[in-house]
Amino acid sequence: MMIPACRLSDLPRGEAYRLDIDPPVSVFHTDDGEIFAIDDTCTHQDASLADGWLEGCEVECPLHSSKFDLRTGAVDAPPAKLPVRTHEVLVEDGTIYVRLSTDAPNLPPCIAARLAGGVT
Amino acid sequence: MRTVAVVGASLAGLSAARSLRKRGYDGRLVVIGDEPHRPYDRPPLSKEFLAGTIGEGDLALETDDEDLRAEWLLGSRATGFDRAARAVRLADGREVRADGFVLATGAAARILPGADGLAGVHTLRTLDDARALRDELALGGRLVVIGGGFIGAEVASTAYALGLDVTVIEVAPTPLAASLGPTMGSIVSGLHTDHGVRLRCGVGVKGLSGEHRVDAVLLEDGSTVPADIVVVGVGARPCVEWLEGSGIALDDGVVCGADGRTSLGGVVAVGDCANWYDPRAGRHRRVEHWTGARERPDAAVAALLSWGESEPGVPKPPYFWSDQYGVKIQFAGHAARADSVTVEEGSPDERNVLAVYRRAGRPVAVLGMNQPRLFTRWRKHLAVAA
Ligand SMILES: Cc1cc2nc3c(=O)[nH]c(=O)nc-3n(C[C@H](O)[C@H](O)[C@H](O)COP(=O)(O)OP(=O)(O)OC[C@H]3O[C@@H](n4cnc5c(N)ncnc54)[C@H](O)[C@@H]3O)c2cc1C
Ligand code: FES
């Protein structure tokens, strides 16, 4: 599925835009001018990676500092252990589009439990 | 270096072991820990694990496919350090000789004198503690938390959510004042009363009453607070008794330089047991927070592998978080150095603030309540400015 996220001109370098779909996805514009989309929710707990700290091609989770690679979704060190999904991005006529991955997301246990309708 | 022994198999020890391998150390690696468990994460013990929303498997710090090529001596307590032989002595009589040592034995919960042996009285530091407390909280009743620090406050918050009747007793006039200063300490601890959890400040605990099981907490003002369960959350002491007489300098933990080097060559200390020199504060400071235990071992390992040759960098300002009553609390820096605190965003009444602590106009600390984005930016700024 292809989803329009935002205007490229509305997303300055070094900033992130959160797409409020379920689960949310974030689009990052790096200082080098590259654009990436990944799942917004940290795989450790309920934190928004769009609130995190972008440095190079990595975003640091705002709560407990695990870093995710925007290119691959890979995580560097605990407390998060699982990667986030990455999504394909496309820029057309000044609009950023995201093509959602069809993989299953790696949601943190607290959210997975909530979605499953209770505590596992 | 042919053998490195890491003593303490929790966050700081595991982080050191990882850094050793990441930095190319290829020799023998022995990790000694007195708990029988593989390294697990402690912060959830007062939060999600205690609440029952995550299980034991979720606490593991290692990933499934991780292989550090280490020898794990678990369930083995270190009882002494032999400087001449360069060996750690274990409780079962064994010795581990090594060239390099990482001391990472953490801290243990302080207890109240005279509280031993009464059922219903808990401290919270280990997985086993958390299992026992979780099982009792499930029965409900009246919980009294002694100590209004972060662990006490988190236990109170979790128990409140589980439906218990909760009272928190704090000897200081304002909880959290030591770490956040009085103004912000009272705003953050206002979370208790917002939710109908009773908070009694400025009164000490005289003792506990009960035959076999605790039934009340006796206060110094002569009053009595009935209790079915008591949690003692009065801080932690560094686990360094085993190093006494070893010649390694101790003073509120292992005394270290700004890169974890101890007074003895080839020995570094990391995590809650280490009293690192903090160039920003101009003094030694023992930091009992997760992020320090995860990040600083890398600097210590670099120092260990290049003994005497690397210049210690300036460690990042200390950072911690806490989750209470659904509010994310984040703090970085040193509140004690500040001469002013201002709320830059949000409102204290709504328990949603970003507050900046300054000294002579320069930021030295920052506090966030439900402000992760702004907090993250301020925290980075602080690392550069302070
Ligand atoms: C309930 C709880 C909640 C917390 N919540 C937060 C939070 O929200 N945010 C935050 O920033 N920090 C939090 N912390 C603090 C954080 O967990 C600690 O800073 C961190 O665990 C320190 O890691 P460490 O490896 O230095 O020490 P520890 O985790 O204490 O580990 C030390 C290990 O060494 C072992 N050991 C001790 N003596 C010996 C010996 N003689 N021989 C062999 N092994 C020994 C111990 O059994 C233990 O396994 C919390 C701590 C607790 C207990
Ligand atoms: S929520 Fe992201 S590292 Fe913990």
UniProtKB/TrEMBL annotation, chain B:
Pfam families registered for this protein in UniProt: Pyr_redox_2, Reductase_C
GO CC terms of this entry: cytoplasm
Domain of life of the organism encoding this protein: Bacteria
Signal peptide stretch: none
Assigned keywords, A-Z: FAD, Flavoprotein, Oxidoreductase
Cofactor(s) the record lists: FAD
Gene3D superfamilies: 3.30.390.30, FAD/NAD(P)-binding domain
Ranges for domain FAD/NAD(P)-binding: 3-294
InterPro entries in UniProt: FAD-oxidoreductase/Apoptosis, FAD/NAD-bd_sf, FAD/NAD-binding_dom, FAD/NAD-linked_Rdtase_dimer_sf, Reductase_C
GO MF term list: oxidoreductase activity, acting on NAD(P)H
Occurrences of domain Reductase C-terminal (ranges): 319-383
UniProt protein name: Ferredoxin reductase
Organism: Streptomyces lincolnensis
Lineage: Bacteria, Bacillati, Actinomycetota, Actinomycetes, Kitasatosporales
